[in-house]
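Might you be able to consider the sequence and fold that I enclose below?
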Amino acid sequence: MSDMNKNQKLLEVNDLHVSFFTPAGEVKAVGGISYSLNYGEVMGVVGESGSGKSQEAYSIMGLLQSPGRVTGGSIIFEGQDVLKFSKEEMTSFRGNRVSMIFQNPMTCLNPVYTVGNQLVEALHAHDKAVSRNEARQRAMEMMEMVGINNVEKRMKQYPHEFSGGMRQRVMIAMGLICNPRLLIADEPTTALDVTIQAQILELMKDIQKKTKMGIIFITHNLGVVADICDKVSVMYAGKIVEQGPVDAIFYRAGHPYTLGLLRSMPRVDAESYERLVPIEGTPVDMLNPPEGCPFAPRCERCMKICLKKMPPYVELGENHRSACWLRVQEKYSKEENGYEQ
């Protein structure tokens, strides 16, 4: 992996559309999102439940369940379009080149098999040339790497004998056992208390530095994003409404939804007591999405055009862009006044 660096593209998602075809109609879960991820980068994907975060991740992994399917766009991984893979190619792709950590480790680990057996099988399924002894040794090395002690004993134990934090460490070990180039972490710390969450995040940062893999980190928690990510994509109602480096998102946010997420998060550096400001309203009905900006019905600065037409992206800085008519208005105002060429 020595040839990998942050200037080389690992993954490119271009105009991805994902829909679920239900008896009630078509639910457009992901509505034309695009982004790229380089080797060694960590990208946070944030947004409330139902924003499409997990569905775009499942599309990369080829794990979309019926009646969902990709209806447009491309997913280019190391120069290959994942959406054109055969069933056999996709089976090889998952685990070997891309792995995923899911939200609840208790539902992902089989309760009737030992943890060691499941780790060994995960490696053996993707590399038939590895002997059982070699796979077992590799499994123990991975358990030690993720901070599990007394691995000889732990290999023989069942999932229910592990704490929540330890089970999540096992899931991380399982995700990394085949040395993937990309790790997708779908809210891996949601079910954990804050102390264990901090340990898991520190562990993921350490492993990422050692392996140089790319990480897509899906979360609700902006504090987690600030701690682990290089850049951020903010999703709302199946669209990416803002993208940028993590510092730009936190200190120069350009979309009202991003600002709303930041205002609803407690700050440890606040000089005085501050009341949290919730985002008013309810999420969009994805069966009948609005014609214009999906956030318009909940936006306190909504204009008439917001309800009628989806705004284009406006560049707010280097690799920082936002889809908001307020930013479009500001851009044209500055150009008319000669502030920009």
Notes: The first strand starts at residue 9 and ends at 22. Residues 194-211 form the longest helix (18 residues). The two ends are 42 Å apart (CA to CA).
